[in-house]
Structures are given as structure tokens and as C-alpha cells.
Amino acid sequence: MTAPLQGKIAYVTGGSRGIGRASAIAFAEAGADVAICHLDDEAEARTLVQAVTARGRRGFQMAADMGEVAQINAFTAAAEAALGPCDILLNNAGMNIRNPFGEITEAEFDRMVAVHLKGMFFMAQAVYPGMVARGGGRIINIASQLALKGSPGIVTYCAVKAGIIGFTRALAHEAGPRGVLVNAIAPGPVETDLTRARGPEWKARISASLPLGRIGQPEEISATAVLLAGPGGSFYTGACLSPNGGDVMH
């Protein structure tokens, strides 16, 4: 049986770890060649490319700061030269800064906006004209269930993730008639390096609060990315799918 993403080329930002890494591998298993960028995570990125090539697909990796438009454009150009033009963009790169609302500095706010909203906006803009010219493409933006419910101590994170959902819906209106489908994924709590750093007490507390009694795995989020990237996602645009273990029901 033909792999659902056979012959496609996927770009994944923040692809060396967590949801990005799981999605890059899932895309390769579904038949796509995969280019990733990362923020100075060379060793992990190299092992990911090895995992992609072990599945019979081509891989490419490059360090790039998604808060800098010049680096976004450099990654796009290098990935296209190495693999070809982008058919599937997974806008995954992100970060978090935890501070009470009254203590958030302008520099912290600007960095969060740059990596999340500015980075996703201009990464999508970098690949969008080519998708339109070729008659189609998929743009998938990683948001968060916290955009839907909010949380104390991470006001900026919740705000930028909500902005990603708004960006997704607005671009979907403009891109849909041109054959480009734009959707978001709003994951719930997932076991990654970032969440493991919160400690076992955090994991136990959050797990107990969820109807499923556990936090998610990156592969459970990458399954949604493959859905939206492939034939099964052909009637989704402007959607926000939220695999979150029941943390938010809507």
C-alpha cells in the first residue's frame, strides 16, 4: 500500500526534540522526506536525520532561530536546495518563560512573540508562494490547549498560543481557495524534555487532573500531524484539533 505522504517534502521547525521530532519521524514513516531546523541542538538533529534516512527517506537539518526572519529565509532556501520545495510545513518551534504577570519583562515578552507568532508567520510566508504556485500544500501550526483555557504564571505563553489559533483561522480563509490547507494542533500536557524538567510532582498532579489519568506522548500528537498532512486531512482547514486527554472539551 502506498504511504500516505509518498513523494511529499515536509519542513519541521523545532524538529530535534519532543513533538517536532516525533512528527518528523512519523512523516518519514508515512513516506515524506523531512527537513528540520533547531536551535543549536546539533547532536539530536543528526540522530533525527539518521532516523529519517533509516526509514528510506531523505533528511536535512540546520540550526536556525525562528525569531529571526533572515534565519527563517536561510533555512527555507537551504532545505529547498537539499530536498526540494515544501509540501507540508509543521510550525512547531516554541519556548516558554514562566513568570508572574507583573514580573514579565519587555525582553521576555518580545522573545515569546518573536519565536511563536513572528516565527510561525514568516515561516509560513516563506513557503506559501511556492505552495500556491504548485496548486496546494499543508500548513500545520502547533498551538496549545492552554490557549483555550489559560493558566497562571504563563500569561505570555497562553497569549501567543491563542494568537497562533487566530493566525491559523485567518490564513485558512485566504489560503483555502488557493489549495493550501491551514490548521492548528493544540496539544494537552505531553511528556517532553520541557515538561520533564517540571519534575515528578508536576507530572503526578497533572496526570491526576485529566480524565485519562496520564499525560500524552509526543507520538500521540504526531498522529494528528500526519492526519492533517495527508489524504485524511483534505477537508480540514481553519481547524484546531486538540489531543489533550480531556483537559479541554469543546
From TrEMBL:
What Gene Ontology molecular-function terms does this entry list?
Answer: oxidoreductase activity
As recorded in UniProt, its EC number(s) are 1.1.1.-
Keywords assigned by UniProt, alphabetized: Oxidoreductase
Classification via InterPro entries = NAD(P)-bd_dom_sf, SDR, SDR_fam
- Would you say which domain of life the source belongs to? Bacteria
Say yes or no: keyword Oxidoreductase present.
yes
Q: Which enzyme class?
A: oxidoreductase
SUPFAM superfamilies given in the database record: NAD(P)-binding Rossmann-fold domains (SSF51735)
User: What family is it from?
Assistant: Belongs to the short-chain dehydrogenases/reductases (SDR) family.
- UniProt-recorded name of the protein: 3-oxoacyl-ACP reductase family protein
